[in-house]
Amino acid sequence: MIDFIERVNGQINGFVWGIPMLVLLVGTGILMTILTRLFQITHIGYWMKHTLGSIFTDKHITKHTKADDQSISQFQSLCTALAATIGTGNIVGVATALICGGPGAIFWMWIVAFFGMMTNYSENVLGIYYRRKNEKGEWSGGAMYYLRDGLGAKPGMKQAGAVLAVLFAVFCLFASFGIGNMSQINSIAGNMKAAFQIPTMVTGIILMILAGLVILGGIKRIASVTEKLVPFMAILYIIGALAVCILHINQFGAVFGAIFKGAFAIKAVGGGIVGSGIKLAVTWGMKRGVFSNEAGLGSSVMVHSSSNVKEPVRQGMWGIFEVFADTIVVCTLTAFTVLSSGLVDLTTGEVLSTAEDSALVGQAFATVFGSAGPAFIAIAILLFAFSTVLGWSHYGSKAFEYLFGSKATIIYRVIFIVFILGGATMSLELAWDLSDTFNGLMAIPNLIGVITLSPIVSKITKNYVDRKIKGKQEKPMLSAFPEIQRMQERELNESD
Length: 496
What we know:
Layout (H helix, E strand, L loop, with lengths): L1 H15 L2 H17 L3 H4 L1 H6 L2 H6 L1 H4 L11 H12 L6 H10 L2 H26 L2 E2 L5 E2 L2 H7 L8 H39 L3 H16 L2 H30 L4 H12 L14 H16 L7 H4 L7 H28 L18 H12 L2 H33 L4 H17 L2 H25 L1 H16 L12 H14 L1
Antiparallel strand pairs: 1-2
Helix pairs in contact: 1-21, 2-9, 2-21, 7-13, 7-17, 7-19, 8-15, 9-14, 9-15, 9-17, 10-11, 10-21, 11-12, 11-19, 11-20, 11-21, 12-19, 12-20, 13-17, 13-18, 13-19, 17-18, 18-19, 19-20
């Protein structure tokens, strides 16, 4: 049975993650970058000030909502989204990209991230603009809603929008068990066994219990945990990676050279080819980049839509920062840690170590921290991957809610928790392949929605820039629904 699943999944995965799919992902980012007039560059100071800067200067960003308010703060929505994106992809995914695609894969990971910033921005803008409240008083938003209510509102597109919305929800549901559960838990269990000799079954049982205590509490409990866990784990890992990079700073020139030569398969001085060829560099860099930051999948928008924010563009800017933090900062640090450690021949791009996945990153840390290096990585993966499980449990829950109603979500949460035990003992290769497959399947309907609704994103962005940056007096574009638009306008005026 497993062999059959692997064969079928391999065929689907090869189709989904072909060059056309990668072109569609990057092409959508390029389109949104053009339509928003390079917002991630032209307004970099503004979105940095209103994301990272606002955490320290604006108490409303981090202030918790009241007990009877089912929305979460902007900071909590960011942390929950980062919890889902900063996971094994930042360690295992980067190591896999280097092994299979060479140093040049990192360049293409950057390209995916640069344009992915605006894809993620657009998803969040649409998510806020088309969100609604469910019967529990929670905001519900995501690709399902802007496909149904946005694309479906166009002449002759009602049925197409409804079908694509259901397809996205189904793919997201399955993806939550792959990228958001089994592959993450599998990495934790494998590393705990390698570093501390803890049986995978024991790890699975403990994680299942811990996850159950959080997930069954819903989005507010998940957000409460992730807002504490994510900053701690990110800062801890960044400090450790920076220590390795600083001590190997004399290798940075060669590292940059290997990355750029490998990206375009340029011959090195000695006649060797850096990396594994341009096709592998592009494919693995983009695949692992998308797996890491999830831009284009339409996943994180489901938690961003739960925020108490009023302006779609404000939440869109958190989407830009999310991709920046995940890929440009964390993934790059992982790559430079490995490449500068001496474990990779920077002339040929050949990996000199027999270690794979997280073990390769552990060896890189061992060059500075000794035997504590692999243990440090094992702990980092534990924190990163577990937080991803929490974030994705919400995504899957929202997809399940769309398909079966909000009262049925408890069924999904219980099943999701039980699957954690299975993830601890299954094949790592199959777990990753399933994750890639459902990632790609999710992206297809989502990107159709983003592309067809791109004029709306452009109008909302221009409206915001004119009002907030250029100081023009215009009516804000806050919601596609008149009743919500009026409510948000009123609350926006009261807050001002």
